[in-house]
Every structure is written in C-alpha cells, then in structure tokens.
Amino acid sequence: MTIRWKHLIVLAIIAPLLGLAVGWSGLMSVRASTGHWAVTDWFLHWVMRNSVSARAVAVGDVPPLDDPGLIPGAAGHFETGCAVCHGSPAQPRPDSVLAMLPPPPNLKVVVPEWTDAELFEIVKHGVRFTGMPAWPVQSRDDEVWSMVAFLRKLPDIDAEAYLQASGLHGLGHAGEVSPLPITCESCHAESKLNDGSFVPRLAGQSEAYLLNALKAYAGKTRPSGIMQVAVGTLSVESLPELAAYYTKQTPAARAGAVHDPILIEKGRILAEQGRYADKIPACLSCHDKADANPAYPKLSGQNSAYLQNQLALFRSGGRGGSQYHHLMTGAAKELTADDISAVAAYFSAR
Ligand code: HEC
Ligand code: HEC
Ligand code: HEC
C-alpha cells in the first residue's frame, strides 16, 4: 500500500516537470501552416460545441428576433466587424484569413447548426484560442441579440439584399457626402431610417450634443459595441467635424409615425407634466424647448424604436453618456414599460 502511494506522489511531481521539459525543449510545434491533426481538430471543435451548448442553457429567454428594425445596425456592424474574417454575401472570405487556424467558417453554412441562444453565447463571448473576438461591450445584450437576428437572416440573403441591409448600397455615389461621414451614412442616412429603426436620426440634433455623444462612445462612457467600433479608428480631431456635418443636415420630411392616439395623449401628459407621485419630471422641462441647454438632445421626430431602447437603457442604469447623463438616469428610474411606449410614441410623432 505504502509503495503505491509513493509511486503516485513521484508521478505527481514528475508529470508536470515532464510537461515543462517538453514545452522548454521547443519540440511542440505552434506552426499554423501545418494545421491540426484530424483528431486534434475534432477534439477542439467538440470541446467548443460542448462549452457553447452548456453555457447557452443559462442565456434565458430569447427576445423576439423578427423585428425588421434590428437588422440594419447589425448588418452595418457585420460589414466592419465580422466580414473581414467571415466574408459576406457580397464578398468571399479573403485568402489571408483562410490561413488562420482554425479558419473562420462561412457563416451562411454553419449558422443553421446553432440555436439562437448558442449564437448569442458565441457572439457575446467569442471563442478562445481561435481569433473569434467577444462583443466589444459586455453590457449590451440588446446589441448582441440584434446580431443574432441578422445571422438568422444571413443564409437566405444574396449580395444585393446584403448591400441594402448593411447600407453599403450606392455609397460613394451620393456626391453630397464628404469622405469622412461615408461610413456613418451606411447606418445613419436619413433615407434608410424609419420609426422602427434602432439607429438614431442625427440630422438637426445640436452640435454640442452630437459631439458629447461621439466623445462618450470614444471614451467608453456610453457603452455600445456598434458605435465603439464605428468611432474606434477616428482621430479625436475628426469628431467636431462629424458633429458639425450632422447638425447642418436638415431632417428629411417623412410621413409622421403612426401610433395609437390614446397612447400619444398619454405620452403628451407625461412629457408636459411628469408624474409627481413617482417623482418623474416633465420631459419638456429639459427637452425640446426654445431656451434648452444645447447639450440636451432633441427628441421630437426621433425614431420611436430608438427612443424606447434608450429609455430602457437609462432605466436600467446602463445607458451612460455625457457628463449630463445622470440627470436623465434620475428622470427615467420610475418609468414603466407603458410610460416608455407612450412618451416614445408622443415624441416620435411630434
Ligand atoms: C479575427 C477574425 C474574426 C472576426 C473579426 C470574427 N470572427 Fe467569428 N469566428 C472566427 C473564427 C476563427 C471562428 C471559428 C471558431 C471555432 O471553430 O472554434 C469563428 C466562429 C464564429 C461563429 C461560430 C461558427 C462555427 O460553427 O464555428 C459565429 C456564429 C461567429 N464566428 C460570428 C461572428 C460575428 C457575428 C462576428 C462579428 C461581430 C465575428 N464572428 C467576428 C473568427 C472571427
Ligand atoms: C453599423 C452602424 C453604424 C455606423 C457605421 C455608425 N453608427 Fe452611429 N449609431 C448606430 C447605433 C446602433 C446607435 C445607437 C447606439 C446606442 O445604443 O447608444 C448610434 C448612435 C449614434 C449617435 C448618438 C445619437 C444620439 O441621439 O444619442 C451619434 C452621435 C452617432 N451614432 C454618430 C455616428 C457617426 C458620426 C458615425 C460615423 C463615424 C456613426 N455614427 C457610424 C449605428 C451606427
Ligand atoms: C433634468 C433634465 C431632464 C429631464 C427632466 C429629462 N431628460 Fe431626457 N435627457 C437629459 C439629458 C441631459 C440627456 C442627454 C444625456 C447625455 O448627454 O448622454 C437626456 C437624454 C434623453 C434621451 C436619449 C436621447 C438620445 O438621442 O439618445 C431620451 C430618449 C430622453 N432623454 C427622454 C426623456 C424623457 C421621456 C423624459 C421625461 C420622462 C426626460 N427625458 C426627462 C435630461 C433630461
């Protein structure tokens, strides 16, 4: 018995030392060029699948993914954040990434193999040791779900539909757009937005507010994976230029948002009077009045899907923003889901 124990102890000491010796000797190959053995390849992917499936159980309820407003922002982000590795319906994977180990798969083919919760898990957290990155901002599950909604559509869309969805269609021919905002226009062009868009209208917003917002994304005090990537490569000096560009745009005339008049009336009362019992201030005491602080955003005519999403973020404390954002976090704390629909309907139709 004692001899057996001794053997085990000696083994426990020698095994790690042997491991270290092999690592130190340089005999282990880390060459990507030679690929994995088939069995290693199978094993790694098996481990990855099991890990993703196990963690997807804790993801919880899948929100509705069929809202068309979710697609454009995610498709635009896919083009800058994902297509470089995975290719897109408009462009195959470049040869340079096919030499990665493992190579990024063609998502059109593999997406149907995963459930919504599994895709959420992969897109939010990435995959270690493979180059597949995590979502840049871990607090924005709503953005990750919008990407899952887009991935679900991916197998069925062709190049033309992809260019439309990602906003790349016809870009560069507009003539009026100066070079800098071209990438911004792929998502923010007035012509692409409607009341159901989660991407906000920028035209006519004050320069001070736009600049504060861009600085907040760049400085990560306003968490958004999509906007963080969009401003990530810009110099600080270009931000005022972009704010000036959008503040000078005139908001395009468009048919007023169609909402239930009763809902709009409920929103109007809240906007004008607030609700004393719940310490909700009147929204119009800060927003959209003639002598308002220019650093406070205009809400009238903004897309209601965007307004609702931002209000939900403020209410949960996850919106962040400029040095003034705490004012709004206080104002949103006691809003109910019905209040949010009502004020969003009121302001978008205004
Ligand atoms: C730097 C390259 C790179 C970028 C950028 C990238 N990926 Fe990946 N992705 C990979 C690689 C490599 C894998 C393979 C992982 C594996 O097989 O374990 C992968 C795997 C995946 C998978 C799982 C597919 C499967 O069956 O293995 C999904 C889904 C996915 N990526 C979506 C995305 C999305 C959405 C984005 C953009 C937000 C993105 N990826 C950005 C490299 C990348
Ligand atoms: C891939 C799509 C996409 C691109 C490209 C993009 N944006 Fe955005 N933008 C969004 C989304 C989505 C939001 C809302 C993010 C949030 O939840 O905070 C947003 C928000 C903003 C806001 C905040 C507006 C407000 O009312 O608070 C500003 C300002 C802005 N973007 C400017 C820009 C500029 C300037 C560029 C170009 C450098 C750009 N965006 C590129 C999708 C995009
Ligand atoms: C005390 C002043 C104040 C009051 C009252 C107020 N807000 Fe705000 N609100 C702000 C400020 C300041 C911001 C911008 C925060 C930032 O710069 O990041 C803001 C931002 C917002 C945004 C985000 C807009 C965008 O483009 O991203 C929405 C939506 C909003 N408020 C709705 C409301 C509603 C609805 C009410 C009433 C229930 C309300 N606010 C009451 C000060 C206020």
Automatic annotation (TrEMBL):
Coiled coil: none annotated. It comes from the Bacteria. Keywords: Electron transport, Heme, Iron, Metal-binding, Transport. The keyword Iron applies. The keyword RNA-binding does not apply. Residues 69-155, 170-250, 269-350 form the Cytochrome c domain. InterPro entries: Cyt_c-like_dom (IPR009056), Cyt_c-like_dom_sf (IPR036909), Cytochrome_c_Oxidase_Subunit (IPR050597). GO terms for molecular function: electron transfer activity; heme binding; metal ion binding. This is Cytochrome c553.
